[in-house]
Description:
CATH class of the largest domain: Alpha Beta
CATH superfamily of the largest domain: Type I PLP-dependent aspartate aminotransferase-like (Major domain)
CATH topology of the largest domain: Aspartate Aminotransferase, domain 2
Structural class: alpha/beta
Distance between the termini: 66 Å
CATH architecture of the largest domain: 3-Layer(aba) Sandwich
Strand order of the largest sheet: 4-10-9-8-7-5-6
Number of helices: 14
Amino acid sequence: xxxxxxxxxxxxxxxxxxDEAWDVERIRDDFPVLRQTVNGKPLVYLDxxxxxxxxxxxxxxxxxxxxxxxSNIHRGVHYLSMRATTxxxxxxxxxxxxxxxxxxxxxxFVRGATEGINxxxxxxxxxxxxxxxxxxxxxxEHHANIVPWQMLCEEKGARLRVIPMNxxxxxxxxxxxxLLNERTKIVAVNHISNALGTVNPVKEIIATAHxxxxxxxxxxxxxxxxxxxxVQDLDCDFFVLSGHKMFAPxxxxxxxxxxxxxxxxxxxxxxGDMIRSVTFxxxxxxxxxTKFEAGTPAIASQIGLGAAIDYxxxxxxxxxxxxxxxxxxxxxxxISAIEGVRIIxxxxxxxxxxxxxxxxxxxHDIGTILDQEGIxxxxxxxxxxxxxxxxxxxxxxxxxxxxxxxxxxxDALAGAIEKVIEVFS
Length: 425
């Protein structure tokens, strides 16, 4: 493996002062996809919780890799391989700083949050969970943070326990406390609900679990794009994110894990690059992070993730978060004022997501009519069917915002919803 310890990394762009006004039109210029029209109307992209758009600088960085640096990493001694390795490992360093991980080796490249959760299920769960043990998740999890743990429990004869939530979409922490016991082996919760926008008190959830000696996995797929995340401050044992939700290409993502856990875990996959030595009698594994990165990775996508982090730093994350919060409040007030519309998910702490239903109108019909107006929203159960069952709705329409969206787009959404109501009245 080529060592990159002494390689000069790309210089990070400093954050601008937080007191500068947010120039959303300048920001929008960075995203070429937003300039197009749909059905003759300006595109209003409000499906950011599914996948955010990609700024030109990230597109250009990926193209530069393919044009000038494309080669396999770590194992080559030639110029292109070393250059690609430098860019790839440089992206890991950027992730380390972005999450405030203690060491870069605690940041494992994966295809996204789903693969990261599965890595922990296989590497930690299959080693440390036994018959009669318990795994705790919450009532508002994405399927990606339910199904792997169900698979583990079925295999091991363990039990899946669920933290309940109230009608507003807030977790009942007193009942969570009561679930923890000597049989609990891991807690896995999302930071922000993709279906409701609830910001969960994960720092408190983690501290409570640690009193019982239980590690915690945080699904940060929705929080990494919208909040400043400090894994050391949270004290989480694992944290997963998806690059395609934070302005990077698909196929990019990270699982952060405390080194003391990662070193004890089994590899997720076997293959090239994750080994120290191989004989037909025995294989010994490489150290972190290589132990968990078998085979050729999505090199261009992970370099793109590093470029997306540079971009987020360049625009000022604190200002972006503040702007998104203001925009969500504005949109919520506009939509709530429309007769016949009901907001689904009314937690006190929310980010990015505005889910709603219209009386006697299926969400798929809402999404279809909004698309005719050039407005992209998500309609369905959002890979969170237990949430829908708990709140007694078959599905919702979901508008999800990013820092390049505008109040004028929120107005357009409100106007299009009124058209939906007119069509079905």
